[in-house]
Give the backbone structure.
Amino acid sequence: MIKKNKNILNHVAIIMDGNGRWAQRRNKSRIYGHKKGVKAVLKAINFSLCNKLNVLTLYAFSSENWRRPIQEILSLIKLFICTLSSKIEFIYNNNICLKVIGNLNQLDLKFKNLILYSENLTKSNTGLQLNIAINYGGRWDIVKVIKRIVYLIQIGLLNPNEINENTVSSLISLNHLPPVDLLIRTGGEYRLSNFLLWQIAYTEFYFTNILWPDFDDKVFKIAIDAYFCRKRNFGGL
Ligand code: FPP
């Protein structure tokens, strides 16, 4: 947890955008940009460890990213598998608890098994909680909750009259974690792209033109400093 003035920072989420443009500006392939993006991911994790942030949630692949050319999708999945396989020891040794959010059922079996193995290996770690959103969509997350609620009603474990916001919050992804305090989006776009819709009702947003491969400690710190200048009322005065 990072604390300054009256604000507490437990949970940062990041929409990592701009890998493709970063590469194109250098006349390189988009996947070259994604590879550089991995280095920025590692920097963000290290920064979070050094600053004792509790939770870091990264948007790596949205449920809409399947619309990209097949070659880019395959290269991205290969990159995820290589990165996770080569960094799992680092993740474990640094007491990081890894969780992947998203629809794993649509993923290649080898990839899914690697994710499940990594989550299981690190589940008792007590340091940084690292969430990676893969094949994730905020609307998918909400639909998943609705289906669960219908099921709980059908088997008689939930009374429809008792459904409230807490019911949804308790079933949505990241339910066991503190709320997202700060959402950073790189790449100069001002949109959410179907990320964590329910979870960010009172989140502070920070948008930067920096392209994701250029994201470093300095940019992370500027975003956090901006967060600590915000007055958070949560609807009150
Ligand atoms: C958005 O940039 C980035 C992605 C869709 C992929 C994010 C992946 C990484 C940062 C690398 C690996 C991550 C992990 C967790 C190992 P874009 O391609 O949409 O960029 P553009 O808007 O410039 O085209």
About this structure: The helical segments are 19-24, 30-50, 70-93, 109-122, 138-154, 165-171, 217-228. The first helix runs from residue 19 to 24.
